[in-house]
Amino acid sequence: MSDSHGGSDREPDPSADRTVRAGEAAEMLGVTVETLRRWEVEGRLRVARSSGGQRRVPVAEVIRLLAERRRTNPDPRAATQSARNHFAGVVTRIEVDRVAAVVEVLAGPHRIVSLMTAEAVREMGLEVGDPAVCVVKATNVIVEAPR
Prior knowledge:
This protein is an alpha+beta fold. It folds into two domains: about 20-70, Orthogonal Bundle (Multidrug-efflux Transporter Regulator, Chain: A, Domain 2), CATH 1.10.1660.10; about 75-135, CATH 2.40.50.100. The protein is built from four helices and seven strands; from the N terminus they run βααββαβββαβ. It has helices spanning about 20-30, 35-40, 60-70, 120-125, and strands at about 20, 50, 55-60, 85-95, 100-105, 110-115, 130-135.
């Protein structure tokens, strides 16, 4: 989660400089690579180029577009559930061992890490780049400030 102060003790955002290939970005956004190219020409999407000239889309741009889509086309099911506890995003990391799994989702400005069974990851067919909705239910939230 993000904080409201601009302190220098904050950990740098690991996704700040991260990019993905145009095809991966298109898949995350549910559009074609051609749509990404059009958005680039229209100025709707900032794209970097690799040293070989390939399009690289900053993860921050994918997050921005997903958040924009969520604001303009809210999920109609949200009216029956607690919308503030649902975070739509993209799976960015999966680590699976024999029993457990760690799944990371970038959802707007939030990086959400879920611990679940390896069986659940397999049953859901989760892969990096898949869209996902994280539902958070917490009875205790502890916030600590470093000294």
